[in-house]
Design brief:
The protein is α/β, with parallel strands linked by helices. It is 42% helix and 20% strand.
Amino acid sequence: MSAASWASLQAAAGPVSRETFERLVEFETVFQKWNRRINLAAQSTQDDVWRRHILDSAQLARIKPDAKRWLDLGSGGGFPGLVLAFLLDERDGASIDLVESNRKKASFLQAVVGQFNLPARVLARRIDDAYAVVSTPQIVTARALASLPVLLELAAPWLTAGACGLFHKGRDYRTELAESAQRWSFDLVEHASATDAHGVILELSDLRQLT
């Protein structure tokens, strides 16, 4: 890929080495091969994986450049979890746990982690079965997994214990925020998406259930 692609990655994620860029380019090829076999992502995005999925995932690293303990829920085709794993490989001691209950998708995740020797652990189980295994993440992520109210329920054991949530959301996110605010209080920062004019990254912290 071109120098422009490397520049686009750095614009989304912050400083990224040439080596990491080249590894992500190779990962894109691996992803496309697997996607034709087990449908990891919509075929309509197959021709624009770099922008629609890789850059969209990579922007989370720029929001939290110092965080080292990450958890990705419903990792699916590896977005954002695998992309973050490549980027976290540049941070000394950083790692990410990838939770995915679908066995075929978990096998894909494990294959990529092994092929590229990424600082990631694949947990092939339901999210509620991961509570006892993943104890103290700093950041919890999820992309295209569920509505915000459902996400907060799923991530509550970590978010109420001090973790910060970074969640991709689309144009209807304010409705989801309003619904979530009926059950939870939280601190919120809205980050404009680097790849979607109508999208945001919601940064939620200090989650507390309303009495």
